[in-house]
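> example.struct
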Protein backbone atom coordinates (compact mmCIF):
# COMPACT_ATOMS: atom_id res chain seq x y z
CA UNK A 1 0.00 0.00 0.00
CA UNK A 2 1.14 3.52 -0.62
CA UNK A 3 2.25 6.04 2.00
CA UNK A 4 -1.01 7.91 1.42
CA UNK A 5 -3.12 4.84 2.20
CA UNK A 6 -1.08 4.33 5.39
CA UNK A 7 -1.71 7.97 6.30
CA UNK A 8 -5.48 7.59 5.77
CA UNK A 9 -5.57 4.46 7.93
CA UNK A 10 -3.68 6.28 10.72
CA UNK A 11 -6.26 9.09 10.64
CA UNK A 12 -8.90 6.51 11.64
CA UNK A 13 -6.84 4.29 13.93
CA UNK A 14 -9.08 1.86 15.77
CA UNK A 15 -11.99 2.61 13.43
CA UNK A 16 -12.54 6.07 14.94
CA UNK A 17 -11.46 9.45 13.55
CA UNK A 18 -8.52 11.03 15.35
CA UNK A 19 -8.17 14.76 15.98
CA UNK A 20 -6.84 15.57 12.50
CA UNK A 21 -9.52 13.45 10.80
CA UNK A 22 -12.25 15.20 12.83
CA UNK A 23 -10.93 18.61 11.68
CA UNK A 24 -10.73 17.48 8.05
CA UNK A 25 -14.24 16.00 8.26
CA UNK A 26 -15.64 19.20 9.74
CA UNK A 27 -14.10 21.28 6.94
CA UNK A 28 -15.23 18.83 4.25
CA UNK A 29 -18.79 18.82 5.61
CA UNK A 30 -18.85 22.63 5.48
CA UNK A 31 -17.52 22.74 1.91
CA UNK A 32 -19.68 19.90 0.56
CA UNK A 33 -22.75 21.29 2.32
CA UNK A 34 -22.13 24.65 0.65
CA UNK A 35 -22.05 22.93 -2.75
CA UNK A 36 -18.28 23.08 -3.17
CA UNK A 37 -16.71 19.89 -4.44
CA UNK A 38 -17.88 17.00 -6.59
CA UNK A 39 -21.62 16.45 -6.93
CA UNK A 40 -21.27 12.97 -5.44
CA UNK A 41 -19.94 14.49 -2.19
CA UNK A 42 -22.38 15.91 0.35
CA UNK A 43 -22.80 16.70 4.01
CA UNK A 44 -25.03 14.25 5.85
CA UNK A 45 -26.89 15.92 8.72
CA UNK A 46 -28.42 13.71 11.37
CA UNK A 47 -29.52 14.28 14.97
CA UNK A 48 -27.12 12.82 17.52
CA UNK A 49 -28.63 9.89 19.38
CA UNK A 50 -27.25 11.04 22.75
CA UNK A 51 -26.68 14.79 22.37
CA UNK A 52 -29.79 15.65 20.36
CA UNK A 53 -27.62 18.10 18.39
CA UNK A 54 -27.56 18.24 14.60
CA UNK A 55 -24.30 16.66 13.44
CA UNK A 56 -22.82 16.89 9.93
CA UNK A 57 -20.36 14.48 8.33
CA UNK A 58 -18.96 14.38 4.80
CA UNK A 59 -20.19 11.46 2.69
CA UNK A 60 -19.77 10.12 -0.84
CA UNK A 61 -22.99 9.22 -2.61
CA UNK A 62 -22.67 6.05 -4.68
CA UNK A 63 -25.02 5.58 -7.59
CA UNK A 64 -26.06 2.09 -8.65
CA UNK A 65 -28.88 1.11 -11.04
CA UNK A 66 -30.62 4.48 -10.75
CA UNK A 67 -30.56 4.54 -6.95
CA UNK A 68 -28.31 6.48 -4.56
CA UNK A 69 -26.53 4.96 -1.58
CA UNK A 70 -24.41 5.89 1.43
CA UNK A 71 -21.73 3.48 2.63
CA UNK A 72 -19.93 3.48 5.98
CA UNK A 73 -16.22 3.07 5.26
CA UNK A 74 -15.63 2.55 9.00
CA UNK A 75 -18.28 -0.14 9.36
CA UNK A 76 -20.85 -0.61 12.09
CA UNK A 77 -19.14 1.56 14.71
CA UNK A 78 -19.34 4.80 12.74
CA UNK A 79 -21.28 7.40 14.72
CA UNK A 80 -23.35 8.50 11.75
CA UNK A 81 -24.55 4.92 11.22
CA UNK A 82 -25.71 4.62 14.82
CA UNK A 83 -27.35 8.06 14.67
CA UNK A 84 -29.19 7.20 11.44
CA UNK A 85 -30.49 4.00 12.97
CA UNK A 86 -31.61 5.87 16.11
CA UNK A 87 -33.58 8.38 13.98
CA UNK A 88 -35.17 5.57 11.91
CA UNK A 89 -33.32 6.80 8.83
CA UNK A 90 -34.39 10.45 8.95
CA UNK A 91 -31.59 12.73 7.79
CA UNK A 92 -30.72 15.63 5.50
CA UNK A 93 -28.24 15.67 2.63
CA UNK A 94 -26.72 19.02 1.71
CA UNK A 95 -24.83 19.95 -1.43
CA UNK A 96 -25.77 23.56 -1.91
CA UNK A 97 -29.41 22.69 -1.19
CA UNK A 98 -30.99 20.77 1.63
CA UNK A 99 -32.68 17.48 0.78
CA UNK A 100 -34.65 15.72 3.50
CA UNK A 101 -34.18 11.98 3.06
CA UNK A 102 -34.91 8.64 4.65
CA UNK A 103 -32.02 6.18 4.70
CA UNK A 104 -33.08 2.55 4.41
CA UNK A 105 -30.55 -0.15 5.26
CA UNK A 106 -29.75 -2.43 2.33
CA UNK A 107 -29.88 -6.21 2.92
CA UNK A 108 -26.42 -7.82 3.11
CA UNK A 109 -26.91 -9.91 -0.04
CA UNK A 110 -27.52 -6.77 -2.12
CA UNK A 111 -24.43 -4.88 -0.90
CA UNK A 112 -21.47 -6.29 -2.94
CA UNK A 113 -22.04 -4.37 -6.22
CA UNK A 114 -22.79 -1.17 -4.28
CA UNK A 115 -19.61 -1.57 -2.24
CA UNK A 116 -17.57 -2.00 -5.42
CA UNK A 117 -19.15 1.10 -6.97
CA UNK A 118 -18.49 3.05 -3.77
CA UNK A 119 -14.79 2.17 -3.86
CA UNK A 120 -14.59 3.41 -7.44
CA UNK A 121 -16.07 6.77 -6.40
CA UNK A 122 -14.45 7.20 -2.96
CA UNK A 123 -10.66 6.84 -3.14
CA UNK A 124 -10.31 7.94 0.49
CA UNK A 125 -12.31 4.89 1.60
CA UNK A 126 -10.13 2.34 -0.20
CA UNK A 127 -7.58 1.85 2.60
CA UNK A 128 -10.39 1.10 5.06
CA UNK A 129 -12.01 -1.74 3.11
CA UNK A 130 -9.93 -4.89 2.52
CA UNK A 131 -11.04 -5.46 -1.09
CA UNK A 132 -9.68 -3.88 -4.26
CA UNK A 133 -12.19 -1.83 -6.26
CA UNK A 134 -11.47 -3.98 -9.34
CA UNK A 135 -12.03 -7.29 -7.53
CA UNK A 136 -14.84 -9.63 -8.62
CA UNK A 137 -18.10 -9.31 -6.70
CA UNK A 138 -17.46 -12.61 -4.91
CA UNK A 139 -14.62 -10.95 -2.99
CA UNK A 140 -17.01 -8.33 -1.60
CA UNK A 141 -19.42 -10.93 -0.17
CA UNK A 142 -17.35 -11.76 2.96
CA UNK A 143 -17.19 -8.10 4.05
CA UNK A 144 -20.75 -7.11 3.10
CA UNK A 145 -22.20 -7.87 6.53
CA UNK A 146 -19.63 -5.60 8.23
CA UNK A 147 -20.12 -2.55 5.99
CA UNK A 148 -23.49 -0.81 6.39
CA UNK A 149 -25.08 0.46 3.18
CA UNK A 150 -28.14 2.73 3.09
CA UNK A 151 -30.44 3.46 0.16
CA UNK A 152 -31.32 7.15 -0.07
CA UNK A 153 -35.03 7.74 -0.42
CA UNK A 154 -37.25 10.82 -0.29
CA UNK A 155 -38.46 11.99 3.08
CA UNK A 156 -41.94 10.78 3.99
CA UNK A 157 -42.73 13.99 5.86
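> example.seq
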Amino acid sequence: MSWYADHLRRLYRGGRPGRLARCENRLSAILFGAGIGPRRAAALEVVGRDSGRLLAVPVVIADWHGERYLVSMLGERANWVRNVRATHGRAVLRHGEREAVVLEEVPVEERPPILRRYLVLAPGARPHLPVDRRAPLEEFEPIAAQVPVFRIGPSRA
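> remarks
Residues 3-154 form a domain with the Pnp Oxidase; Chain A fold (CATH 2.30.110.10).
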